[in-house]
Amino acid sequence: MNTVSPEPAASGASPRVVVLAGGISHERDVSLRSGRRVAEALRSAGMEVTVHDVDADLIPALTDTHPDVVWPVLHGATGEDGSVRDVVELLGLRYVGTGPRGSRVAWSKPIAKTVVSRAGLSTPDFVTLPQSLFRELGAGRVLEAVVARLGLPLVVKPSRGGSALGVTLVRDAAALPRAMVDAFAYGDTALVERAVTGRELAVSVIEETDGPRALPAVEIVTDGPYDYDARYNPGRTEYFAPARLTEPETAAVMSAAVEAHRALGLRHLSRTDLILDEAGVPQFLEVNVAPGMTETSLFPQAAVAGGLDLPSLYRGLVTRALA
Q1: Is residue 162 part of a domain?
Q2: Which residues are noted in the entry as Mg(2+) 1-binding (predicted)?
Q3: 163 catalytic, yes or no?
Q4: Are 111 and 232 members of one domain?
Q5: Which of 41, 235, 239, 304 has the most CB atoms at less than 10 Å from its CB?
Q6: Is residue 34 within 8 Å of 73, Cβ to Cβ?
Q7: Looking at the structure, do residues 130 and 220 belong to the same domain, yes or no?
Q8: Number of domains making up the chain
């Protein structure tokens, strides 16, 4: 594990940045890869960077060295639910990304969908089912009611989490019980939403001096479900950056991502996942406050498609955190 350099930054020197990566979530490996990529980019931009895991040594290291900026590149629980950001604030440190409150809202898919819906965005109809209630009421009867209300196909996913872990597309009611079991393996509450047909898109947002700006949408085309393997192992997924959209479609999805960023109270950067349905309406699925930064991740692809230099972009985010 890397340790934090004890040397304070000299006046006028480049900011000292600690990138947090790893943690103990199901997405640890992805976080480590993302953290390395961010650190490499910041170093190439002339910054002093250290990568640190989230473990018992973290608080003493941050307290002793007091870096100028912390960048949490943590995926999954603790990294995106606001808790690590709470601790960073307790230590009086500046950091890149959304604050604890906005992180908690975005981390819960049902809450995020409710907030953006109230802000005027479209999102697929859904229900949330805690595992305890699911068992108490009887799985069979509950699932019958779900199918009767939402129809088929359905998407079942953990109410919290990322990287498509525990997510299943259900086309046949007979497959629904297994999908629920898979979702409950990653959390105690499942979200079941009506599956929307259309183009799968990811729209990243960065904040500039005049407010949030959407980067070019990235279109995702897979040979099957856009699951964990398709996301992080090259070959199964084809990306189009920018997405193959008309000008009105481009404007619609970019506006939706910016509106979601604002409505959820996000900061510095985010990535909104949505489906552009057959009527040309962006359907909000979820938002990420700590987008993946690996070689196959969507945020870096969007930045490059927008003509941005990653080291310069990441340095700019650090500068905004300092401001």
Answers
A1: yes
A2: 273, 286
A3: yes
A4: yes
A5: 41
A6: yes
A7: no
A8: 2
